[in-house]
Write a structure and sequence with these properties.
The complex is a heterodimer of chains A (about 230) and B (about 400). Chain A is mainly beta and about 230 residues long. Chain A has a single domain (about 5-20, about 70-225), classed as Cupredoxins -  blue copper proteins (Immunoglobulin-like, Sandwich), CATH 2.60.40.420. Chain A has one helix at about 5-20, and strands spanning about 35-40, 70-75, 95, 100, 105-110, 110-115, 125-130, 135-140, 145-150, 155-160, 165-170, 175-180, 185-190, 195-200, 205-215, 220, 225. In chain A, strands 5-11-10-7-8 form a 5-stranded mixed β-sheet. In chain A, strand 14 and strand 15 (about 205-215) form a beta hairpin. The two termini of chain A are about 15 Å apart. With about 400 residues, chain B is mostly beta strands. Chain B contains 4 helices and 21 strands. Chain B starts with a helix and ends with a strand. The chains are: A mainly beta (about 230), B mainly beta (about 400).
């Protein structure tokens, strides 16, 4: 992801954290929350996260399935209601077959993520991202360590031992985000009526955004994205 | 001279940085290998710029007559072509101090059976002996300097040999430029116990099962003197067994034997260099500690009179460690010793002297991760030698390491 995209995303996440508006001013009449849904397609297949070319190995390295590079779609800014409830879930990012699973993990600020090692070898999870810098050290199979994420932004996660292992944690200040499924479909539910900017993120393409209006009567609004260079 | 070389180094670094793909460059510096043809081709690079105070008196860190490990600009471009899951072509072109690039590695890698961890590599191949030789990349070497056994030049040469013990003892602490009466008449650099700056050519096989890894090789040169082509019709056999009894602990034992003298100085049959090694690595949390020992014996075609020996021995051993203080900062240190067997001369060392001057080295440093694959580090290295013109030297050096 380019630096400009990162800056734009970070600005969006920060703005969402402090936003006091919820789109257009709501009318006094009874309103119903809506759903924003759609698909995110990638114009180019994402590059494989190949290990460094290591000429010093005495044999073939393991082959790894390319990670499932899903997209994240979120509102920017988010409705006021987004800040009223804390997320109590405790997600995990596994280390299995020398891969982080999931490869992309969106969470809410204040969430603690577990990093269990389910491999037969050491792993050393770390990040040098400004949003959260941490180093869990080397720990063996069956053990788990955790990290709490207190600031919105993007956290790139690596393993210090296996250069091909990487993952993304997107830390949001609100709950209006959705991780696409393997087909690229996403769904943002319980969105109050209003006008929003919907942003689509994928690690292999620049950010794209759309203006969308959720009507007072609620209902479903479809917004599709095609990310990457034409 | 140094200024112009520095300018060339900086220009090379700039060109390398600018030559990277746009998508990767947008993140500052690229961090993934460049791939093409559906991932069948991958290219990577490593740039190491090291600077420190000059050392044209003691030559503690010289890797040959011209290159100093603490004042070196090294660029390596590595590539891998994997047309099939069982077949790869691997290579690395490397330049030190902007000399013409050489093929540091160039070999074919095969896995004959899909379900067996048996790999064969042929060409200019990584060493099976010991541990350090295969982990010089990135920050696998925890400090800037090299272990003495892999870098320090003893006075021995494969193209010139002493006639007597005095010829050997006269060259104590002069490995950077030694000379002997038999063979090449020109002064030249000696050889280390194991060359850390050149790989040998031959065939190797590695088999892994459970916690055990076995590796063996047949090569043209020896540990001290790796060669592209054979110069004495004698091959080196080398083997290593590695065991991982628990996750985080690796124990290894190695052995090697091969003809080390060129036919020019030993036309009938070249005597052997024999080596044994042991290594151990333990890591946990933010620590990694390693220990390695290398014993080497070089044979000669005649006794080194007045001593009756026909062999000279050397033993190198060191312990090193690294601790990651914060996600970006680490500290590292190495304590190292290189010793030599005793030799009795007629006019020098009549009571017996180590045939080369024993050396001790302690190095400590700190590193900072500017980016995951971009490290700035500095170290202080103290050297003490029991012989030579300059017996103790301290070096302060700094290094930038970048790879993708």
């Amino acid at each position: 992801m380019s630096r400009s995209c990162f800056a734009a995303l970070l600005a969006g996440l920060m703005a969402a954290a402090t936003a006091h508006i919820d789109g257009d001013a709501p009318p006094k009449t009874a309103r119903a929350n809506g759903i924003i849904r759609g698909r995110v397609e990638l114009r180019q297949p994402p590059a494989d996260n190949a290990p460094r070319v290591s000429v010093a190995d005495l044999g073939m390295g393991k082959t790894h399935e390319p990670p499932d590079r899903r997209s994240v779609v979120y509102l920017d800014p988010a409705p006021r209601a987004a800040f009223e409830r804390a997320d109590e879930t405790r997600p995990r990012m596994d280390q299995r077959d020398e891969t982080f699973e999931p490869h992309v993990l969106p969470i809410v600020v204040g969430t603690t993520v577990d990093f269990p090692n389910n491999d037969h070898t050491y792993h050393n999870v770390f990040s040098l991202s400004k949003t959260k810098t941490f180093d869990l050290g080397r720990y063996a199979a069956g053990r788990s360590k955790s990290v709490r994420f207190d600031r919105p932004g993007i956290v790139r996660v690596f393993c210090d031992i296996h250069s091909h292992m990487s993952a993304f944690i997107l830390v949001f200040a609100h709950r209006y985000f959705s991780l696409s499924d393997s087909d690229g479909a996403y769904r943002l539910e319980n969105v109050p009526p209003g006008t929003y900017t919907v942003v689509a993120w994928n690690e292999s393409a620049p950010l794209e955004s759309r203006r969308v209006v959720v009507p007072d009567a609620g209902g479903e609004v479809e917004v599709n994205f095609a990310l990457g260079r034409r | 001279m140094f200024t112009s070389r520095l300018i060339r180094c900086l220009l090379t670094l700039a060109v390398l940085t600018c030559a990277t793909p746009t998508s990767a460059r947008a993140q500052a510096l690229p961090e993934r290998p460049i791939q093409a043809f559906d991932g069948k081709v991958a290219l990577g690079a490593e740039v190491i710029a090291t600077g420190g105070n000059a050392d044209d008196i003691a030559f503690f860190n010289y890797t040959d007559y011209e290159h100093n490990a603490l004042r070196m600009f090294r660029v390596g471009v590595s590539g891998l072509y994997r047309p099939a899951e069982w077949l790869s072509f691997v290579g690395e072109l490397r330049s030190e101090d902007l000399d013409s690039p050489t093929a540091y590695a160039a070999y074919v890698r095969l896995r004959p059976w899909r379900n067996r961890s048996l790999d064969i590599q042929a060409g200019r191949i990584p060493p099976v002996f010991g541990s350090f030789g295969r982990r010089q990349y990135e920050t696998g070497n925890p400090v800037i300097g090299y272990p003495l056994a892999y870098q320090y030049l003893t006075s021995l040469r494969s193209d010139a040999i002493p006639a007597t013990a005095d010829d050997v003892l006269r060259m104590r602490a002069r490995g950077w430029r030694s000379s002997f009466p038999i063979g090449s008449a020109l002064p030249g650099p000696g050889i280390p116990l194991i060359s850390g700056f050149q790989w040998d050519t031959g065939v190797e096989m590695t088999w892994r099962t459970g916690i055990v890894e076995l590796a063996g090789s047949v090569t043209n040169g020896t540990l001290s003197s790796p060669r592209l082509g054979d110069d004495n019709s004698g091959k080196q056999l080398a083997a290593r067994v590695g065991v991982t009894p628990v996750v985080g602990l690796v124990l290894g034992a190695s052995a090697a034997r091969g003809a080390w003298l060129s036919e020019a100085v030993a036309p009938d049959s070249s005597p052997a260099q024999q080596s044994f090694g042991a290594d151990a690595e333990y890591s946990r949390d933010h620590w990694i500690v390693r220990w390695e020992l290398v014993w080497s014996r070089w044979g000669f075609p005649h006794a080194l009179t007045p001593d009756t020996t026909t062999t000279l021995d050397s033993l190198g051993s060191w312990v090193e460690g690294r601790y990651r203080v914060t996600p970006r900062i680490f500290v590292a240190a190495r304590a190292d010793h290189l010793g030599f067997s005793t030799l009795h001369g007629a006019t020098i060392g009549t009571a017996g002297l180590p045939w080369d001057a024993p050396v001790r080295r302690i190095e400590g440093g700190v590193g900072y991760y500017l980016q995951r694959n971009f490290v700035l580090r500095t170290s202080v290295q103290g050297n003490w030698r029991e012989g030579g013109r300059d017996r103790a030297r301290t070096y302060l050096s700094g290094q930038l390491v970048y790879w993708f």
